[in-house]
Design goal:
Helix content is 38%, strand content 31%. The chain has 6 helices and 9 strands. The strands form 2 sheets. It has a 5-stranded antiparallel beta sheet. A 4-stranded antiparallel beta sheet has the order 5-4-8-9, with no helix packed on it. Helix 3 runs antiparallel to helix 4.
């Protein structure tokens, strides 16, 4: 399966990426991203999975005049999304029942212990894409129910298995960066009804909100 995906993605991306430079003359960064998503919209996943993915995805952007400073897409990995992802993953790779059960158990345990967000960044300038650095230009925090402010326990840049991530998260493009932001839950935080992921820095502030 991975070899099949790799061959198809390689052919598709060579065509699309070679065509992209001509489009920068005509379109903004956000338009290019949107066009890439349409050109590369080969569905390796089911309608049910993509519906759940869309339900738990939020998007934000920052502009300076006509220039795009930052495009951001984020998926909240709560119970519903983790279950849909597990089912889809196991179906794609034809895993046996005991592996399905193990993966589902691990995903539900992670949902109980952490609030995880997959965050995909398209930065107009390379300097703005530094979220995993110790002295990042950005401050990122999670606001729970409008008042409990929390810094990430971990910010991890996803550097490998790009073909895999592009298959399951189609808003990832060849020039974007993907991160996992992890926040620790405690017993008193498990009942949070509204989560707001906030990115703030010199270019401005992006606020992404999820309601349970």
């Amino acid at each position: 399966m991975e070899g099949y995906l790799k061959t198809k993605f390689k052919f598709r991306n060579v065509f699309i990426v070679s065509f992209i430079p001509f489009l920068f003359i005509l379109f903004s960064c956000s338009s290019i991203q949107s066009l890439y998503n349409r050109l590369s919209d080969e569905h390796y996943t089911s309608d049910d999975y993509r519906t759940t993915l869309k339900k738990w995805t939020r998007k934000g952007s920052l502009y300076k005049g006509l220039k795009t400073e930052l495009l951001l897409s984020s998926v909240y990995k709560g119970n519903e999304f983790r279950k849909a992802y597990t089912i889809e993953y196991c179906k794609v790779y034809s895993l046996p029942p005991h592996q399905v059960n193990n993966m589902l158990h691990n995903q539900m345990q992670a949902a109980d212990d952490y609030d995880d967000f997959l965050v995909v960044i398209d930065a107009g300038e390379e300097q703005w894409d530094d979220f995993s650095k110790r002295n990042s230009l950005w401050s990122v925090f999670l606001l729970r129910d409008g008042n409990l402010r929390e810094k990430p326990l971990e910010v991890r840049k996803l550097k490998e298995n790009r073909i895999f991530y592009e298959s399951f998260f189609p808003f990832i493009s060849p020039w974007s960066s993907a991160y996992n932001f992890r926040f620790k839950k405690t017993d008193r935080l498990n009942d949070s009804k509204v989560l707001e992921l906030i990115f703030t820095g010199l270019p401005g502030t992006i606020r992404l909100k999820w309601s349970h």
